[in-house]
Amino acid sequence: MPALPWTPGTHQPADGDELHVLTSRLPLRNYADVPRFLYWTLRIRSQLQSAPGCVGFALDAKLITKTFWTLSAWSDKAAMDHFAHSGTHANMLADMKGRIGDPNFVESAAAAGDIPLSWADARARITEHRP
Description:
Elements: E1 4-8, E2 18-27, H1 34-49, E3 54-62, E4 67-74, H2 77-84, H3 87-96, E5 104-111, H4 119-128
Antiparallel strand pairs: 1-3, 2-4, 2-5, 3-4
Helix pairs in contact: 1-3
């Protein structure tokens, strides 16, 4: 499955704004959970498109390795946290509990001029922050 391209969110940052970026690597435990995760992905993309503070987002699904990469940029950490613990995303967290192996989450900063963010930068963020 090809990576889904960067999709702009509702928040339009001003030149020079510093954005809050979340990069994640989500390895599923079982191949049987891939369809369930894809179902949630489609629903969460809808939530992201109208989420306050969302600058943009992208997904790269590596189905052969059952690993999903997410990348999103936010006006600030509070907007990202609100999204993560509300609506469809909160429901997905409850439903997928125990189905995701050893995930990696990296929060970092990016300048508004760096949007759209690249997958090369996202993967470098994860690699640099692995324990």
